[in-house]
Amino acid sequence: MPPPPPDASDTPNRPPRTMSREARRSQIVEATIQTLAARGFARTTLTEVARTAGLSHGLVLFHFDSKEGLLSDTLSHLAEEYSQNWKAALDTAGDDPAQQLSALIEADFSPAICTPARLAAWCAFWGEAQSRPLYQESCGEKDAAYNATLETICARLNDRGGYGGNPVRMARILRLTIEGAWLDLMTMEAPYSVEEALATARTCAAILFPRDFTAPA
Amino acid sequence: MPPPPPDASDTPNRPPRTMSREARRSQIVEATIQTLAARGFARTTLTEVARTAGLSHGLVLFHFDSKEGLLSDTLSHLAEEYSQNWKAALDTAGDDPAQQLSALIEADFSPAICTPARLAAWCAFWGEAQSRPLYQESCGEKDAAYNATLETICARLNDRGGYGGNPVRMARILRLTIEGAWLDLMTMEAPYSVEEALATARTCAAILFPRDFTAPA
Amino acid sequence: MPPPPPDASDTPNRPPRTMSREARRSQIVEATIQTLAARGFARTTLTEVARTAGLSHGLVLFHFDSKEGLLSDTLSHLAEEYSQNWKAALDTAGDDPAQQLSALIEADFSPAICTPARLAAWCAFWGEAQSRPLYQESCGEKDAAYNATLETICARLNDRGGYGGNPVRMARILRLTIEGAWLDLMTMEAPYSVEEALATARTCAAILFPRDFTAPA
Amino acid sequence: MPPPPPDASDTPNRPPRTMSREARRSQIVEATIQTLAARGFARTTLTEVARTAGLSHGLVLFHFDSKEGLLSDTLSHLAEEYSQNWKAALDTAGDDPAQQLSALIEADFSPAICTPARLAAWCAFWGEAQSRPLYQESCGEKDAAYNATLETICARLNDRGGYGGNPVRMARILRLTIEGAWLDLMTMEAPYSVEEALATARTCAAILFPRDFTAPA
DNA sequence: GATGAATGAGCCTTCATTCAT
DNA sequence: GATGAATGAAGGCTCATTCAT
């Protein structure tokens, strides 16, 4: 299930007995995400991570020194992945703020990011007070950059479209709708589809900026 | 730690040695909320709950047969409290859907509900919701009732105000904005105030139903 | 299931709220026997004894001071009951050693003594090393008296019948066959009946003293 | 308590830090037998087993997944040891039923089997047999095989020697005398010697089959 | 007498971490 | 690099015992 590590140039089917340092770490981080998703934060153990990765118990700590280090690196990995995803989407959107916002929304629900396992892993980190300083360390800066980008886009749309709202609150409502839809997908008993989540986010954009967006059917 | 001598006149600000069953249970549930808030789900232990309540850990298990039972009852308590709060607000709002929505929003940020400890406790449960049936058991039904109420209000506002949106998505955007603001208050490094959270929710209402609500300054 | 306490002169159906000291103690001892039988020594708890007796937790310790005291008294009760049973049987047997032996054997399998619950309780005490000093205290003397009686009977039968065996070993074989049959009834997966156990003991007597006893069919 | 420095030349009479899986398991099972003997079933704790083995309690559960598993394996070990002992004795006895019976009796009191610790451990398991399926699972089949062997021998002796008894009861009397003697060695205040126990069993054989056995002095 | 709340010692078990191989 | 035995701290839970009512 986990994708092959980025720089693995070995047998594609089975992890070789010795892998490059980075490849092993990626493999273990991926196993950690799977485990967080399957068992939650509280019941994620190193033994389970190792079993999921198909590795021995001791090897995980050989690469990550401590459980806290592993979780921290896993969170950083998720944050980096998320960050690269929306930045890449932004790059392809050109200079038009409407197209930029559209690209951002779509990126947040893209199949690379909006995986059940990744959603669940994010949820696990959010819920755990213990991980809050850890979260700020790994994600604070990146979250701030995302917010700033979103607020800039909203401000530019306001300027251009003559909307009168507070761009900070407009950006916040957009972000909360997107994040909240993620949470819904995790916590509801019979959650709606990713497509419906995306449609909800687009509806939110259409309500905020009616001259630039249209609510989907 | 030994109990005071039998003829000691009880200091009033110290819990008596024996309390009624329900009073003790409430006390312990409250201590559980505090502990969840302070240490998160994963590091919430019976010993810590007992210490917070100023009781022996044995007594916690005397009143709640297991840790799982304690957490389940705590979540039910939170859910019940939340439910009663918005229903009471709704009752005082009369039949006008705009006033009803206003009351619902206000209720969700009222001082009785929107406590740091309670927010954090909810967060802790959300984070584990994926891997444990606990959350759905205690909250699934109540969450559905809240959603249904919100959707009905949105539909009535649509009918009355001539708004064209999908009431399900409008209700969802409102709910996610409210819930998300709660999450922000927990996870941000320097979160905005509860007043700003409330203003954001009201802004959301104003954007959805501009003829019935005005965005706060 | 437990027989009414010996000196209870109250309502026969339900134990009254206050009973005489001895009646309460008997009731609790009987509940202890039932519990030992149902759950074994290791899992016999005061709570379970109290529940079996239909009494509150604390009352058991009010009457017996400690768990050890309760178990000790229970064992003494069993020993006394056993002792009185075979002595009474012996009294009715007259002076003939063959009839005495016959009476002893029959007494050990009589319905008053050879109850499933009582067998299981004896087994529980035998198996528990912890209870060995306790066992000696309660039963050592009585066991010795039983042995002495049995040896005397065997010696008299030898004298009278011209058997050549060692009376100590003959008595021992008889006793072990009886005791062992009890153990069989407890530990075998599909044990034989009490009648077969009795027949086995009589067969043993017939082999030891062929001129005085005949093996049953 | 910290392990000796890495370059310390290992004292030979101290168990090495790492042993083969099977060797460790055997060591722990042996410690369990000692502990059962010393403290009985109810007070046998993993901590005590570990202390007896000179190991950490965590290691016991590393090799046996639970206390129940440890006890079950210990009982199986005892049963297997016992079974192999009498079967080996039987193999060396040739085809003569008298010599076979003699070998069986002797085997049951051989120094390898009739150890104080082993007797006490058996006792502990018997005492709990009632309330746990543990015993039947581990020993039911092996006990049945022993019984069948003994009954066959008795039947062959009857055929050959013209004895008229019921071979099932004769085998039972023999077995109960042997087992009962074991119990005596455990429960009596001043028990007789193993030699006297063996003599008693032989006396029993001599009484059952007087033409093939002679009672010892 | 009787009840049941309350305590705390001690149990089994989990699990992060260390370390010899 | 990699494995897995070994350790020990800490957690949930049971239960004998105490004690206020």
CATH superfamily annotation of the largest domain in chain A: Tetracycline Repressor, domain 2
Question: Mind telling me the C-alpha Rg of chain A?
Answer: 19 Å
Tell me about the largest β-sheet of chain A: none
Task: Provide the helix percentage of chain A.
Answer: 55-70%
* CATH topology value of the largest domain in chain A: Tetracycline Repressor, domain 2
Shape of chain A: elongated
Uncertain runs of chain A with pLDDT below 50, 5 residues or more? 1-14
If you had to describe this structure to a student in words, what would you say it looks like?
4 copies of one chain form a homotetramer. Chain A has 217 residues and is mostly helical. Chain A folds into 2 domains: 1-65, Arc Repressor Mutant, subunit A (Orthogonal Bundle); 66-208, Tetracycline Repressor, domain 2 (Orthogonal Bundle), CATH 1.10.357.10. Helices cover 69% and strands 0% of the residues of chain A. Chain A has 9 helices and no strands. Chain A has helices at 21-39, 46-53, 57-64, 67-91, 97-108, 116-127, 132-161, 167-187, 194-208. In chain A, helix 1 (21-39) packs across helix 2, helix 1 (21-39) crosses helix 4 and helix 1 crosses helix 6. The longest helix of chain A is centred in the C-terminal third of the chain and has 30 residues, at 132-161. The first copy, chain A, is elongated. Chain A starts with 20 loop residues before the first helix and ends in a 9-residue tail after the last helix. Chains in contact: A-B, C-D. Chains C and D meet through helix 1, helix 6, helix 7, helix 8 and helix 9 of C and helix 1, helix 6, helix 7, helix 8 and helix 9 of D. Chain B binds a DNA duplex (21 and 21 nucleotides) through helix 3.
